Amino acid sequence: MSFARLIICTLRHVMLALGVLALLCVSGHAQTVSPLNAYNVNPNTVTVAGISSGGFMAVQLQIAYSKRIFGTAVFAGGPYDCAEDSSNLAQGQCESGNGIPLQTLLDYTNTQAANGTIDPTSEVASKPIYMFSGTNDTTVHQAVMDALKQYYLNYTSASNVTYNNNTAAAHAWISPAGPNSCSSSFIPYINDCGLDPEQSFLTLFYGTLKPKSTGPLGGSYIQFDQNAFVASGHAKDISMDSTGWVYVPANCKAGQACRLVVALHGCLQYPGIIQQQFVQKSGINEWADTNNIIVLYPQATSSFSNPSNPLGCWDWWGYSSPNYALKSAPQMTAIMAMVSQITSGQQGGSVPGVPAAPSGMSVTATTAGSVSLSWNASSGASSYNVYRNGSKEGSSNSTAYTDNGLSASTTYTYTVTATSSSGESAPSSTVSATTLSTPFTQSLTATVVQHLTASRITLAQYLQLGQEFGFNTPITLYLCGSTWTDSPTCGPMQ
User: Fold this and answer.
1) Interval 261-284: pLDDT, tens
2) What are the helix (H) ranges across 71-169?
3) What amino acid positions are annotated as catalytic residues?
């Protein structure tokens, strides 16, 4: 269903929703609205997830605030700035996937990054990305999400992107707690498809998880004042509700080190339509409860003029500001102000069971084709993951690693994380290393016989190379000082 047709159906949805909501009310008592508290949350653990308009907004947050967002899950979203400040394009190319000008969007992204209106695109490279697109989604067609994947691959490697595009789901957030069947495309747009994508993307974000809570949750749902995070002091000026929600596990309330996920609902999922169903049935809280993860649920709302947003969508086409996709966007600055408030209580420490980030990261040696690294041990770590230029390069069971097969005269950046059965730590500090210039002074290609005749190799090397490659096979040798070798980095004869 297109957004235009959704608008036509809004009143019908609302009337039906009101009947459903009467059954959903747990009590007649008004909720207490509190200020949003600060918690012991490491800012380097902030991730974001969203569906539909919330999916587009999740992409905007990730790209615009790539220094502060460390993982993203996108359900039925699309490429950054897909709508190009146009509701017509939002309802056209960004629903069907036909004619999305990917290169134009990339050029816009790169220009804004160069101008400093969004964070550097290089910050996207090391961050895990989870994507979900149902094969029966007729609102945001799968071609849109395919375009998003292609967009991402300009800034990160395929190994950092996990894409579920083979589930027969309609347009909805997918959760084991969803009240709708997988094929439903109706309020509250939370479908049970017999899988747990929340486990999938939280594992990508934070490593191995403890089993989720299967009984009553031990944490608290807290309704907080969103007006405090909007420049005008009135959230409804930018089509945000006056209150939002946050789920706080008991351990986090008690001051233990925790992580933070920002979860963004889609159109027609704001409280005026489905109350707190997205907040309570997203499937995130059950995992959060046992894994020290706070879940922030900012809330948009409907508005019919100044701005016009009748379906309560997040702004991904420019209804609140022409700068809706930049760091200065009204809704994004409000959400990130909430993130800043929550993380302002950081006291240090690590999530129980998860090792601390390795310290003492250093470069111990370089050659023309390798970089050697070392770091201090992290208590409780079973192994370490090594990241080069933001992408995982390898693993080590010790506190040292040599990265081989590199290009000469090239600068690389490295971080290391510690892992255990409870998860993966935050990254170490970043170090840079530049490989040496090409060490050989001459290279010659000839057969093994010709190399022996020219006295470039010994008889023993002749027999070795001949048996390995063939005596009449051309091979390249490199002159390193006064010695010939088949290693372009001047290593020993292989």
Assistant:
1) 999 999 999 999 999 999 999 999
2) 87-91, 93-96, 102-115, 142-152
3) 52, 137, 171
